[in-house]
Amino acid sequence: MMRSTLVLRRVASAIAPKQSLLRATSLAAPLSAHHSALTSATITNPRSFATAANNLGSILQREINEEDEAAAEFDGQMPPDLAELHSDISAKWTILEGISGIGSGGETGSGATVRLFRKSPGSNGAKIGVVFHCQDTEEDIPFDEEEFLSGQEDDSEEEPSQAVRFGVTVSKAGKTVVLQCRCGGDGAISVESANVRDGESEGVLTALAGGENLNAALYQGPEFTELAEDLQESFQEYVVKECGIDEDVAAFISMYADYREQVEYVTW
To answer: How far apart are CA 95 and CA 98, in angstroms?
Structure first.
């Protein structure tokens, strides 16, 4: 993943040696013999500070150069595959970056959370929404039964793909069903929990984006894996067929989370 040239420059600037400050430190007289001994034992020669800062600065400059080269590939725009998928998804979903009332346009970190609202209603006029955070990811390492039984680990150096967690809301008549889901690196969608909240989609999505805050004290629904298998499968089918979270939407969530994480890192 590309990393920010801007943040590296900020760090390089922050750690650059300040000659006047170092000079003042080296010339400061001890207040007492005890203070003198303590000072000589704990303050390093200013030249060593400068050397450490210069070494770090040269490594940061190397990273900045690499980021400049990587960023030039797409000229600061979305990768073509993601741009095309974004256009396709936008035909059926309204895509919004940020959360109403949290931050403002352009504020650092304000676009880390992404919301989608389906343009066509669900059954009986239900409003359907999706929310995900660009950093709510984890390594997607599938369980290999043969590897587990053999006691041998895969020594492959291939970087594991990332799974993204996201929430789906279905709102109607002042009540909202919340389905916490996961999109694997292979695009497979799984439902991890299901509960009901008061309120419409917008308010519930905001609560989800904030970790539910006070709502976290409410009943979170049963342990999903303890539900009857056919009930778990029905929820799964409902998310895909009724809510419209198909392969394209799953791919968009995964790719856009990665893209937004990079954009937010650059801003940071």
So the answer is: 10
